[in-house]
Amino acid sequence: MVSASIPPTACVDDVLRGFGQMLVCNHRGTGLCVLIGLFIFSPQAALLALLGAGVMSWTVRRLAKEEAILKTGLLSLNGALLGLVWIHFPQMLLWAQITATVLGSVLMAKVFVPVAERMHQKRSAYVLFSLPYIAAAWV
Asked: Which of 30-34, 55-59, 79-83, 132-136 has the lowest mean pLDDT?
């Protein structure tokens, strides 16, 4: 475990780095710009993306053994993209979107943390971890 108590600023940093990864940039400032743009586009979509990234970041901080995998922002990116996917399914009820975002983020964290830690041990490129998601989001 990285730490027993999770400082809120650490989760905010992880979340903003995750949003920055949407532009393939591991920087909090870029993430903040992306988040502001999402709020301008659709406040509901931005809130769902923020929920997904926040839940993913919090869960990853609970599960991860290494701090290095948290600083990439790639794990939070996956939660944010899950929250954004609901733009394409407007007929789905809001409570179902929220539930699916939270449960999906937790499930992804449980699957991706061991994979990311294994990649870190083998010194693999982390960007390969989210390249399919980024490509799909840009298409």
From this structure: 132-136
Give pTM, 2 decimals: 0.81
pLDDT for res 135: 60
**In contact, 55 and 105? CB cutoff 8 Å:** yes
Taking the C-alpha atoms of residue 23 and residue 30, their distance in angstroms, rounded to an integer, is 8
Q: Which two tokens stand for residue 119?
A: 């990649």
Q: Would you state the structure tokens that stand for residue 52, as one six-digit string?
A: 């997904």
For the chain, percent helix, then strand, then coil, each to nearest 5?
80, 0, 20
113: Cα separation from own chain's centroid:
12
- pLDDT at residue 4 tops 70: no
Q: Quote the radius of gyration of the chain (alpha carbons, Å).
A: 14
CA 125 to centroid of chain Cα atoms: 18
Residue 99 confidence (pLDDT): 96
CB atoms within 10 A of CB 119: 17
Q: Which among 79, 71, 31 is positioned nearest to 55, based on CA atoms?
A: 79
